[in-house]
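Entry 12.
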Amino acid sequence: MRHEDFTPPISRPGPHLRAVFTAAALAGVCLTAAGCGGDGGQSPGTASRSASAAPTPSPTQSSAPTPTGSASASAEPLPRGPLTGRTVVIDPGHNPGNVDHTREINAQVDMGNGRKECDTTGTSTDSGYAEARFTLDVSRRLRTLLEAQGAKVVLTQDGDRPFGPCVDERARIGNKAHADAVVSVHADGSATGNRGFHVILPAAVNGQDADAARMLAPSRELGVRIAGNFVRVTGSAPSNYIGDGTGLDTRDDLGGLNLSTVPKVFIECGNMRDPKDAALLTSAGWRQKAALGIAEGIGSYLKR
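Predicted 3D structure (tokens):
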């Protein structure tokens, strides 16, 4: 997600030690949680996203957006499992084609308490691995894991549209699906040395169309469970630059959260601009762990 008004974060004393203690505490969530089996906006205080690194859209992409999201691609009946009867919407952040549709994604849309650009290009690693590619890969892995437990999974986009969807439409897809949980998958674009993941929770906002206030408690529980399982499965520590070592951040400037009428969180899986985090994010094996950590967090929340 592209960052606006970047101000380099102020160093805090002992971030590594604090993150280690917090990681242990978050991992404890899994031990106490029932059923635990194993937008286009960005975080304030982080560096600008690169618009040039995203790849061109696939030739198979459709020529017009679809407003209802991309349902599970599986033609086979879903297996019965612990998540049978549950609907999960996965929102792969950005779109590889956004870079070729800057006019469209720069158009202003309602975000519940103001207006914001439709979407952004996302960031990339220094080697050119685009956030939009990362989010789609992790989201597809996540879909497979959730479907194996019987969940109905809807993706807001699956590489099947030329750009977007806009942040307001991303929220509507989850709302129309009456989703039991929605997770927007991202990777951050901060300064070198800033490491770790964080989960973004909705804030109470004042706006005619914003409806996140009544979702604050369930969204927070969803976020806490995802954070705890993400620590346990991936071994990654909570962010050392956002959230004071908690791995949690609350924001009111993301339309995807502000406009949601169902439980929803964002997860920034790591910092693509830090070489050590980038080495993880570009590893297929680590991306599978990331998907598993998110899936087990969602499962823990839904089975509570």
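Annotation: Strands lie at 70-71, 87-92, 108-110, 115-117, 152-155, 181-188, 198-202, 248-251, 264-271. The radius of gyration is 17 Å.
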